[in-house]
Amino acid sequence: MLTIRPAEPADAEPLTALMHASSAYTGAYASILEGYAITPAQLAKDLFYVALLDGAISGFYSLTLAGEPELDLLFVADSAQGTGLGKTLFQHMANQAKRRGLSAVKIVSHPPSVGFYQRMGATITGTKPPTAKVTWERPILTLPI
Description:
alpha+beta, 4 helices, single chain, 145 residues, Aminopeptidase
């Protein structure tokens, strides 16, 4: 059974743990998450939704609404990969954006995730250059709402 609900302050630690356990951020990609933790203040500021499969946190997303709306985080637990949960969360995010009258959502993508976002209707509109912490270029996509 799948439930998607708004995140609560007590979700900060479990969401951080899910994010850090992701096999998508191992090896060369691990540096982007070093020292990063989701906080209750972040949960209150941004639009966060949590997916529970059979009562267990199995994924989440964060949509920032200040300035240019951006899909900041989208994670699915390794154990839920291939179940369609990522697509379900992405569609939920797009519906929330539409409800709020947004015309587009920016996505700065993890390079291996670009194909997923393109299948969801986003198009590549640019590239974010490397930084000291993120030493690779990241595709920037735009999802029309």
